Amino acid sequence: MTLSPFIRELGRGARGSRSLSREQAFECFSAILDGQASDLEVGAFCIAMRIKGETPEELDGLLAATQLRCTPVATPNNRITVSLPSYNGARKLRLLTPLLAWALTQQGLSVLIHGHATADDRLTTEALFQVLGWPIHRERQALAEHQLAYYPLPTLCPSLSRLMDVRRVLGLRNSGHTVAKGLCLGSGPQLRVIAHTHGEFGTLWSQWVESQGLTALLLRGTEGEPVADPRRIPSLHPWLHGVAQIAAPAPPARASEFADPEWLGTDLDLVANWTQDIVRGKRPLPPSVAHQALVLSQLAQAAHAAMASPPESRP
User: Closest Cα to residue 198, out of 37, 46, 50, 13?
Assistant: First the structure.
C-alpha cells in the first residue's frame, strides 16, 4: 500500500495542506503500524503531521487504528484504573510520575503506567521503577485492585513502539507519541491522565475527550510527563463521561515550596533515594502531587458512582 495520496494532502504547505478524514487517518495509520509503508513514506508522514498538527477527527482515527493493534492488560472490571502514560521522562526536573502513582495507590486506586523511551538523555519511569524495585511487567500480567505496575509499550503494542522509535532517526516526536497518551491499555474502565505541553494540544485533547464521552484528567504536564509541575499551583481539568468538571481548589502554598533548587536534578540514585524517603514518611509528599492525587481520587469516585447508576442518570 502506498501512502502518497495521504502525504499529498498533508504536505501541500502552510496554505494548501488539508487534514485527513477519520477514515483516511485510520487507513493510513493502519498501514504504517502493519509495516505496509516504506521507511521513506513513514518519515514523510511523520514530518507532515508534525508540521500540520492533528485534528480531533484525525486523532480519533489514529487512536482507533492503534487500539485494534494493542493487547490490553486485564484490569478490574468493577473499579476504575488510573492510566498514566509516561513517555517523555525528566530532562531537568525530578521525575514525579512514579511518586504520583504511589500516592494514588494510597488512595485505594490501581494504577497502570505505560511508557517507552525514545531518547537516551532523560530519566525514565522504567529506570526509576527498576532501581526502586517496583513492578515492571514485561509480559501481559493482570493488574489487580490496589496495585501499581509499569508496562513497557512493546509488551502491549509493539507496532506503535516501533513507530515511536523513528524519533531516534528524525530527531522529532511524531503522531505515535501523541496517540500513546490517549491509549486505553486496560480491559476494565479507565481514568486517563493526559498531559500536554502546548495550549493547542490541550484544546485538541479536550475536544477528543468530550467527543468520546471519556473520563480523564487533562493538564499541562511537567516536561511532558502526566504530573503537575511542582514549582507552581497546578491547573487541572477533570472530565467525567465527556463533561467538564471543576477541580477542587489547590491549597495555598508558601513561596518556598515552589523554589527551583528543590526540584532540579535527574540523577537516578538521587531521585530514587528522594522518592524512597517520601514513601517511607521521611519527607512530605510534594503539594502538587498530593493535590493531583486528591483530584484523581475524587474523579475516580465520581466515575465509580456513575458506573453504578442507571445510564439515564449519568451526566
Answer: 50
Task: Work out whether strand 81-85 and strand 110-115 pair parallel, antiparallel, or are unpaired.
Answer: parallel
191: Cβ–Cβ under 8 A, 6 or more apart, which residues? 80, 81, 82, 83, 215, 216, 217, 296, 299, 300, 303
Task: Please write the tens of the pLDDT for every residue from 138-197.
Answer: 998 999 888 999 999 999 999 999 999 999 999 889 999 999 999 999 999 999 999 998
Q: Of how many residues is the chain composed?
A: 315
Are 204 and 54 in contact by the 8 Å Cβ rule? The answer is yes
At the top level of CATH, the class of 81-313 is alpha beta
Residue type at 278 in one-letter notation: I
In the block, residue with C-alpha cell 445510564: 311
d(CA 290, CA 285): 6
Pairing of strands 216-222, 110-115: unpaired
* Amino acid making up residue 108: G
Give CA–CA dist 268/262, Å, rounded: 15
- The CA R_g of the chain, rounded to the nearest whole Å, is 19
Full-model pTM: 0.92
Domain 4-67: CATH superfamily is Transferase, Pyrimidine Nucleoside Phosphorylase; Chain C (1.20.970.10)
Cβ-based neighbours of 178, under 8 Å, separated by 6 or more: 54, 59, 62, 201
CB atoms within 10 A of CB 244: 14
The residues pairing with 225 across neighbouring beta strands, listed in sequence order, are 222
If phi > 0 it is left, if psi is from -120 to 50 it is alpha, else beta; for residue 54 that is: beta
Q: Give CA torsion, residues 252, 257, 258, 261, to 10 deg.
A: 180
Tens of pLDDT, residue by residue over 61-108, are 999 999 999 999 999 988 899 999 999 999 999 999 999 999 999 999
Domain boundaries defined on the chain? 4-67, 81-313
